[in-house]
Design brief:
The complex is a heterodimer of chains A (307) and B (267).
Chain A (H helix, E strand, L loop, with lengths): L1 H43 L2 E3 L5 E6 L2 H7 E3 L6 E3 L1 H33 L3 H16 L2 H12 L4 H9 L12 H25 L3 H9 L4 H12 L1 H16 L3 H7 L6 H9 L5 H28 L6
Antiparallel strand pairs in A: 1-2, 3-4
Helix pairs in contact in A: 2-13, 3-7, 3-10, 4-7, 5-7, 5-11, 7-10, 7-11, 8-9, 10-13, 12-13
Chain B lengths: L13 H23 L15 H8 L1 H32 L8 H13 L2 H19 L5 H24 L4 H8 L4 H30 L2 H6 L7 H9 L5 H28 L1
Helix pairs in contact in B: 1-11, 2-11, 3-6, 3-8, 3-10, 4-6, 6-8, 7-8, 8-11
Chain lengths: 307, 267
Amino acid sequence: MDKVREAAMAARSKDVRNRWFLSAPALLVIFVAAVGPLFVMLLYSFMAKGDYGDVRFGEFSLDGWFSVFFQRDLFDDTFGLADAHIAIIWRSIKLSLSTTILTLTLGFPTAYFIAMRPARNREIWVFLVTIPFWTNLLIRTFAMQQVIRNEGLLNNALIWLGVIDSPIQIMYTDTANLLGMTYVYLPLMVLPLYASIERLDFRLVEAGYDLYATRLQVLRRIIIPIVKPGLIAGSILVFIPSLGAYVTPRVLGGGKNMMLGNLIEMQFGGGRNWPLGAAISITLMALVMIALLIYVRNASRNGGGHA
Amino acid sequence: MPSPKFDIQAQPGFSFVALFTFFALYLPIAALVVYAFNDSESLSMWGGFSTRWFVSAWNNTAVQDAAWRSVLIAVWSAVLATLAATMAALATTRSPNYRGLTFKYAMINQPLMVPEIVTAVALLIVFSRIKVWTGYSGLGYLILAHTAFCIPFAYLPIRARLESMDLTLERAAADLYATPWKTFRRVTLPLLRPGIVAGFMLAFVTSLDDVVITEFVKSGGQDTLPTYMLGQLRRETTPEINAIATVFLAVSVLIVVILFLLNRRRQ
């Protein structure tokens, strides 16, 4: 009997060993070109900055982390808050939340609409949402620029309609960032929402109406609570990439309306302050991890998300 | 009690918002495509229908270069990522939980969790040092970086396919004295093929579309089509950029449509 069990255990541990060999290439590539560099960056954030970019290797310093939130006054050497950085962090959070709310406002009815189509047509509608999702983000941002620039579609249409006399400046404002990110990340909201709404049991809705609920009450008290996991999944899926957005604010927001991604880039370009750039990157990552944790906690409480 | 005509699924205004959303989703893309056929030099005026910007983009050596490099990197990274992802999927499915399985999931999905800009600067830090140490500054860095973030995209459909696969056929093969390798080649692999094809295509599109990581990892003169376009967007653009974007769009849409049809046939 023991021998049989031993043989089974040997076979099992051999199987597990084979499984490690099989997954080795993927793990190795991701370690070398994704996870590992993050650890190196963490080290860099604690080093002194070099004069022409890079760092002074092995020279420990907290300046990078210090300058994320504080700045030293040049004249009297006192400390003050780094207003510019805090403004950018705050703008990133604010814009990401606004983007999430706007995508939700547009995405919820859209997902609902798709879920209510006859079953054989739904696939086509979902596909229509998927196409923009799989096309290049830069191209979609550029496409948005065609609509909102001063001689763009929107301004031309408004002037033609007589609503305005001269173009409204949308490009290079926070509104441009907001519209661009909403446009670019909208599919990320619609898809998980649709997955939730599609499974909605309409007998519950019917029961609500039988009990004299209004449409708004049915929506608020029955539909939304049931599809909440999809709602949260969609919100997180939009919030996270918005927070780390780089291309959209660079193309639409211009230099004055930087977000965290652009602030990071600056430290590695003209700013030549790699430790600070590394520290901001890690701050951004921490913000993302917090959002993810909220999602995971919520998903496990709801018995698995629908993302 | 609701009247027989009362539609319990209806919500006021929802269809309107939904149709507006679809309109808003496609209007900018339509504008971009239409302006690619604009004869006028400037983007603001319509100067009649013309395909001259496509011709000029086609003859632009910088564009040719960038396009070729994009495809080269995408093919290499998609092949490598699909290979690694297939092996990893075989190693992480159809088994009782074992120690390290969660770790593997976390590692494979890691590129999806971290903002691209963060990975991009981390790679810049590491690769710039390696470039100095080794003196090598070829496309290898870009291919390696792309392979890493393509793995999760290739992994998803392959794993999904494996998990829904029937184990009895493989058992039958083993009962008929097939070696494990033969079982894999003659039974598992053919059954897995749709997943692998889907994974490869997702990886290919993902690599082709990448801007941020490429922008930070590339050495001088290693523009891909997206980073070339990003550079052009800094200045006044001509409809040539629209023409390039239109062709790029067409290729992406084509790939996605093929994926959709493959998926549909399978069902």
